[in-house]
Amino acid sequence: xxxxxxxxHFNDGTSMPLQFAQQDASAHNVTQRVHxxxxxxxxxAEVDGSLMLFPLASIKYIQVSPAPEIVPANALKGVTLAG
Length: 83
Known about the structure:
Layout: E1 3-10, E2 15-21, H1 27-40, E3 42-47, E4 50-55, E5 59-65
Antiparallel strand pairs: 1-2, 1-5, 3-4
């Protein structure tokens, strides 16, 4: 499986880089996971044998690269940072 990277950027200006194997990238699974994340208000990750819970209220944004090939239908695609 391909390696993925994710950086969680917190509201206090800190960030946490993570690396992981590609997860199930089916259209249904990616969309379902995004909806569950927003509904539950927590992102969960098993990190080095420990379960970590990240409250969404403390997260400014999450950057995942490379982007999944299949993303939820409401995601903008092909966007470039301007400026």
